[in-house]
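Dear Dr. H.,

I hope your travels went smoothly. While you were away I took the liberty of generating a structure for the chain from your last submission, since the lab meeting agenda had it listed for discussion. I wanted you to have the full record in hand beforehand rather than looking at slides cold. The sequence, exactly as received, is reproduced here:
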Amino acid sequence: MNKKVLSVTFGFVLSGLSFQDILAQTAEKETYSDSYVYMILAALLFTLAVLFASLMIFESAERKKKVTVAAAATISGNVMQDHEYDGIQELDNPAPAWFQALFYITIVFAIVYMVQFHMIGKPNSSTDEYLQEMTIAQQQKDELLKTGGLINETNVADLTDAADLSKGKEIFTVNCVSCHNADGGGGVGPNLTDQYWIHGGGIKNVFAIVKNGVTAKGMISWQTQLNPKQMNQVSSYVLTLQGTKPASPKAPEGNVWVDTTSTTPKDTLKK
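The corresponding predicted structure, in token form, is as follows:
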């Protein structure tokens, strides 16, 4: 590459570094909008286009000069450079145009990459990007734990905390009393206070029914309206209705359910 091309490229890199300093000072004072950033990027791309065109002009002129010299040298029978190293002479023959174009493309790519990742607020390194992604992942994990996203019918546990049971009662009052009555005695739906269960008792079975519903019986699936933690809360509240005395209990339905996984007398009979 000739001296003119080197000087233009070096000057552009220096201007890019100066521009980076300006952006750094601006960022300390105020933030700028995305449209402003895109305007800056467009200006830089325009400058790159001008630089590329200038390089092509310089190279074309240089190539014409070399062709003229080579033609004259051919006439005189000498197309070699006037220097040698270890007995090796260099042929005065420019690189193919496609190779030079590829070389210039790599320069443009490097400059665009520098602008994108070091001059307009993008992550300055893979470490910064990693830390940002870890922060987002932690936020998603916290939200998942908050809503009980890991709870399902295979690992759900009976809640006994007063706050959880109070929330479960609130959910039951809003969504369940129309079919089971406020005291759980049953109406359209079965009685939730006796020892009989149609689809099995215990927290896992109750949670599964709340989650998936029973379409044939008219009970909808609540998993689209309640998150897993809320379904756990209302299922746990339903189990507290066992043994209570509703005003007008519905006749028993299903069978007495025995929890074969527990030896605690309290859990052997549940609705």
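Two observations you may find useful: Residues 1-7, 13-32, 264-271 have pLDDT under 50 and may be disordered. DSSP finds eight helices and four strands in the chain.

With kind regards,
E. W.
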